[in-house]
């Protein structure tokens, strides 16, 4: 298992996951490098979408594949935006558009009604027909602010208050975020599962 295809073109994710897989002496190749296009995310859960992405990348490349699906779920919105986090305010939505829509949806709600969490599901498939993909999950609890704060991160980070560090996710040092985020927690869980499976 010297090469694995990452079913994402996100440079940040590539950096984070490359660190993880360097422990297994593996090279992580973004799917764009192999001319693999994005696949339609037709699942109704983070797990389903991550499996769809990993299977597509493994099928086209003939290599093992890693995919993640992540987003934010807000309790007052019954878990929305959830799997639609990236396109909450439309297909071509920017992070700013999505943050603006989330603020509108939560207008007038007090802090205790603004609880939320980031979710990340990672799926590793040895091949496209892998009947037992390795699945790892991580969540990160927080509160949705009433206005954006900070310049770092991406997505909903300027609105995601992290009580343990008394700041917004967008105000966290990158190294700190990479240790406590939903993706960090899921990555540690995946690492443990891969070791258990003998990698």
Description of the structure:
By secondary structure, this protein is α/β, with parallel strands linked by helices. The protein is 31% helix and 23% strand. It contains five helices and seven strands; from the N terminus they run βαβαβαββββαα. The chain has helices at 11-22, 46-61, 95-105, 174-180, 182-196, and strands spanning 3-6, 27-30, 65-74, 115-125, 134-144, 160-162, 167-168. The chain has a seven-stranded mixed β-sheet with strand order 2-1-3-4-5-6-7. The longest helix is centred in the first third of the chain and has 16 residues, at 46-61. The radius of gyration is 17 Å and the shape is globular. The N and C termini lie close together (9 Å).
Topology:
Blueprint: E1 3-6, H1 11-22, E2 27-30, H2 46-61, E3 65-74, H3 95-105, E4 115-125, E5 134-144, E6 160-162, E7 167-168, H4 174-180, H5 182-196
Helix pairs in contact: 1-5, 4-5
What is the compact description of this entry?
With 199 residues, the protein is α/β, with parallel strands linked by helices. Helix content is 31%, strand content 23%. The N and C termini lie close together (9 Å).
The residue ranges in which pLDDT falls below 50 over 5 or more consecutive positions are none
Q: Specify the number of helices.
A: 5
Helix percentage range: 25-40%
Overall 3D shape? globular
